[in-house]
Amino acid sequence: MENSLILIVEDEPKLAQLLREYLEQANFRTHVIGSGLDVVPWVESNIPALILLDIMLPGKDGMAICREIRTFSQVPIIMVTARVEEIDRLLGLELGADDYICKPFSPREAVARVKAVLRRVRLQESGGLEQDVFHIDSEKYQASYHGRQLGLTVVEFRLLRKLLSRRGKVFSRDQLLDQLYDDHRIVNQRTIDTHVKNLRKKLEEIAPGENAIRAVYGVGYKIDI
Amino acid sequence: MENSLILIVEDEPKLAQLLREYLEQANFRTHVIGSGLDVVPWVESNIPALILLDIMLPGKDGMAICREIRTFSQVPIIMVTARVEEIDRLLGLELGADDYICKPFSPREAVARVKAVLRRVRLQESGGLEQDVFHIDSEKYQASYHGRQLGLTVVEFRLLRKLLSRRGKVFSRDQLLDQLYDDHRIVNQRTIDTHVKNLRKKLEEIAPGENAIRAVYGVGYKIDI
DNA sequence: TGACAATATGAACATATTATGAAGTTTTTC
DNA sequence: GAAAAACTTCATAATATGTTCATATTGTCA
């Protein structure tokens, strides 16, 4: 099943070695890079299944690398940060990473995260979740819920798509608004509430009481099923 | 297991001798230094497993020494102070010490603290052989405890995350309040007590009697498991 | 030990956030 | 260009959360 290639970008040799050992014990192949400058060229010519990317690096920092990789590849990336507080900032930047781990972490946890992300990605790749209640067709701008077609407006569709892009993740209203428009118009944050209300109404008609969209007080909305 | 070298920096000979005896009885090796001026050179050429550092010293004070050591080493440091009130000040200075003991202390307590700090540091270095009871996901704003999901509010979540960011470290109420808000609102310090109370209640439901969050009299709170 | 200070806790109080219906705007459709 | 649909804003109700307060309990230190 495994045997996938994991790229470890980490300048601290001891930690890199530790990760390598644990990952290989879990039957992954690994490659370690210690300098930020070498990462992008390597990723371009090799194709790792996942990248563990430390954010503090000599040469070029992890954020820049993540952004650059995202211009040409959708390879799963797990960011490693030194401070918990930093994760908040990173989330705001929308780098496109798939998960975040905070130092110090146990190698066991790291391996678990790697597996979780891979599982998620593979599920998506294998043609959308089989028994998923949601199905999204970005080309046709159509979405279905429990097998039944939802008649969504464009804004509602984009809102739902954004929320579904990361199940469980809490999106701030600002993050959601960004996704809704191509131009950068300024609209009232409360507008989101109204779209959520309308979207909920349509979901409710199909599956009453499921409460797919939940508000997280003081933060934003998430999809929680 | 032990046999680690503990550096005791203490100018009062009687106390130094007492500590030495107790620590050696617990199978540590010790070295005593009575003057502040001799500490840094000694630490540079020897490598203690931990330093017990009195803050009031002839020659050079403990704070300056701690700061200086931190420029070249991450060796665990336990600061020894004469008064509880002082710990508060020390915390604000962010010296990078790992724990604080207040005089007068029982040698037994000192040994316990030394062991606790060493255990913690080793756990971190070795990548944690123990399965962590806490797991937090900043993206989903979800935290689990002993594998079970905690339904935390945002403030509670941030509070827990901050406490967890450095296990064992004591955080003052001010430090904790800073983490709780993006804006710089002014709230009563006692507010933290209430949030801690609520958080404890939720932890208690999962693991009664574990007392994960401890109050440190006159200073603040820490997580100590 | 006794005086004092800090923490714990339940309840009252205050605030902030979300939900919702409706009205006002803009955009699309015919 | 009128009507319909979609979008945004607004006002207010409902609710969740945060804060303070008063008192009991516990810890510290002389």
* The number of domains of chain A: 2
* Terminus-to-terminus distance of chain A: 27 Å
List the secondary-structure elements of chain A in sequence, H or E: EHEHEHEHEHEEEHEHHEE
Identify the CATH architecture of the largest domain in chain A.
3-Layer(aba) Sandwich
Q: Report the strand count of chain A.
A: 11
Largest sheet of chain A: 5 strands, parallel
Task: Please identify the structural class of chain A as seen in this structure.
Answer: alpha/beta
CATH class of the largest domain in chain A: Alpha Beta
CATH superfamily of the largest domain in chain A: Response regulator
Uncertain segments of chain A: none
User: Outline of chain A, from the CA principal axes?
Assistant: elongated
Spatial extent as radius of gyration of chain A: 19 Å
On the 0-100 scale, what is the average pLDDT of chain A? Answer: 85
Quaternary state reads homodimer
Q: What can you see in these coordinates?
A:
- Two copies of one chain form a homodimer.
- Chain A is an alpha/beta fold and 225 residues long.
- Helices cover 42% and strands 20% of the residues of chain A.
- Chain A contains eight helices and eleven strands.
- In chain A, α1 links the parallel β1 (5-9) and β2.
- In chain A, α1 (13-25) packs across α5 (107-125), α6 (154-165) packs across α7 (173-180) and α6 (154-165) crosses α8 (190-206).
- The longest helix of chain A has 19 residues, at 107-125.
- The mean pLDDT of chain A is 85.
- Chain A binds chain B through residues 18, 22, 83-85, 87-88, 91, 99-100, 102, 104-109, 166, 168-170, 216-219, 222, and chain B through 124, 127-129, 131-132, 135, 138-142, 153-154, 161-162, 164-165, 179.
- The first copy, chain A, binds a DNA duplex (30 and 30 nucleotides) through α8.
